[in-house]
UniProtKB/TrEMBL annotation:
Matching PROSITE patterns: GLUTAMATE_5_KINASE, PUA
Role according to the record: Catalyzes the transfer of a phosphate group to glutamate to form L-glutamate 5-phosphate.
Residues holding ATP: K30, T189, D190
Protein known as: Glutamate 5-kinase
Gene it is expressed from: proB
Reaction equations catalysed: L-glutamate + ATP = L-glutamyl 5-phosphate + ADP
Molecular function terms from GO: glutamate 5-kinase activity
Domain PUA residues, every copy: 296-379
Alphabetized HAMAP family for the sequence: ProB
Pathway annotation: Amino-acid biosynthesis; L-proline biosynthesis; L-glutamate 5-semialdehyde from L-glutamate: step 1/2
Length: 387
């Protein structure tokens, strides 16, 4: 392990200039098992209602919220009367299936107190690594947000096998922040933040208030977790690095601190804030352009070029002159002008074969031409970056 770092090792500018979290518009909040189940004693319904009350206050200020909740295994263990986290995957799956029932019920009734709908989404790794399913997950979550529903996400523990597990919900939270291009990821845990050493083992450990998400020194001081969850601080710092790829900042925050969420988003410097190295917009563009291979090219007419470059619009089939290459729905394509100059990249809503049929046609004709309609755009502007 590297030398422990203290708050004093963090550059001064990073300690003083804390960006305003009150400017957040889309936030992913992940809550860990120990916190949710009161260290394994069963779901802490009072605490859950307290977080939901704070979240609803944020939502009422116009912030879009996505919740990632752990605790299915921990709650399943309580319901089944098991005192130790099982090792066998089948027992873990069984505990998760039992516990998930209580978990969603608890969240749903807490949001209902405020007349707000919530929705359960169980994701596997494949849902986020397979391009087509990635787009589907993104569209479904976006639709829920547009409807004012709060998505409640967990890993689909009962169907995943060891090799394909996210492994911990910190990673899942970061991938969801990437998927939805959230501006802030909050990892709510049982400690007030990241310390210079594990405070359970070192009483002199100091809270690190701010740092860079990719700083290896921070990863070196982050240790394992407790008996209930999986990740510990290591996966939280690693998750901050993943979230930073699409420009999100991460806060590791103590869920037992009074009104922690409310105070954090009122710009009180609570917890540990981990910042991306780049401006969010640059990071987001690099992420979209860099994490996928281009599978084809769409050649656009002058009207479509203007719509994308000047007006920030989606790409409609009517503006496409030619479709090159072979691609499936959800893959990355490059858009060029008629001179072959690349202008934008994006995730396409239709396969190459379908796009060839749609090129030059109005969106009203999609259903007639294909026999179904996925979306009126070939590339939605949320899935497009102008280069
Ligand atoms: N440097 C550190 N700073 C704070 N906590 C740490 C550190 N290293 C290890 N930990 C441990 O990580 C635990 C939180 O991780 P974990 O149990 O996985 O929580 P969660 O269920 O919220 O994901 C803390 O209780 C603490 O003992
Ligand atoms: N999907 C698992 C997540 C386990 C997990 O990552 O726990 P934690 O480290 O407490 O966030 C569950 O619900 O138990």
């Amino acid at each position: 392990m590297a030398a422990p770092c203290s708050a004093a090792d963090i550059p001064h500018s990073l300690q003083t200039e804390r960006p305003r979290l009150s400017a957040s518009r889309r936030v992913v909040i992940k809550i860990g098992s120990a916190l949710l189940t009161n260290d394994g004693q069963g779901l802490d319904l009072l605490a859950i209602q307290g977080w939901v009350d704070q979240l609803v206050a944020l939502k009422n200020q116009g912030v879009e919220l996505i919740l990632v909740t752990s605790g299915s295994v921990a709650e399943g263990m309580v319901r089944l009367g098991w005192s130790e986290r099982p090792k066998s995957i089948h027992q873990l799956q069984a505990a998760a299936a039992v516990g998930q029932m209580g978990l969603v019920q608890a969240w749903e009734s807490a949001f209902k107190q405020h007349g707000i709908h919530s929705a359960q989404i169980l994701l596997t790794h494949d849902d986020l690594s397979n391009r087509k399913r990635y787009l589907n997950a993104r569209s479904a979550l976006q639709t829920l947000l547009d409807l004012g529903v709060v998505p409640i996400i967990n890993e689909n523990d009962t169907v995943v096998t060891d090799e394909i597990r996210f492994g911990d919900n910190d990673t899942l939270g970061a991938l969801v922040a990437n998927l939805l291009e959230a501006d802030t990821l909050v990892l709510l845990t049982d400690q007030p933040g990241l310390f210079s050493a594990d405070p359970r083992k070192d009483p002199h450990a100091e809270l690190i208030q701010q740092g860079r998400a990719h700083d290896p020194a921070l990863l070196a001081v982050a240790g394992d977790g407790g008996a209930l969850g999986r990740g510990g601080m290591f996966t939280k710092v690693r998750a901050a690095g993943l979230a930073a790829r699409s420009g999100a900042r991460t806060v590791i925050l103590g869920g037992r601190t009074e009104l922690a969420l409310r105070r954090l988003f009122a710009d009180e410097p609570l917890g540990t804030l981990l910042l991306p190295d780049e401006e969010p917009i640059t990071a987001r563009k690099r992420w979209l352009a860099g994490h996928l291979q281009e599978k084809g090219t769409l050649v656009l007419d002058a009207g479509a070029v203007r719509a994308l470059q000047k007006e920030g619009k989606s790409l409609l089939p009517v503006g496409v002159r030619e479709v090159r290459g072979r691609f499936l729905r959800g893959e990355l394509v490059v858009c060029t002008n008629e001179q072959g100059q690349p202008l934008a990249k994006g995730l396409v809503n239709y396969s190459a074969e379908e796009a060839r049929l749609l090129a030059g046609q109005s969106s009203q004709q999609i259903e007639e031409l294909l026999g179904y309609i996925e979306a009126p755009e070939l590339i939605h502007r949320d899935n497009l970056v102008v280069i």
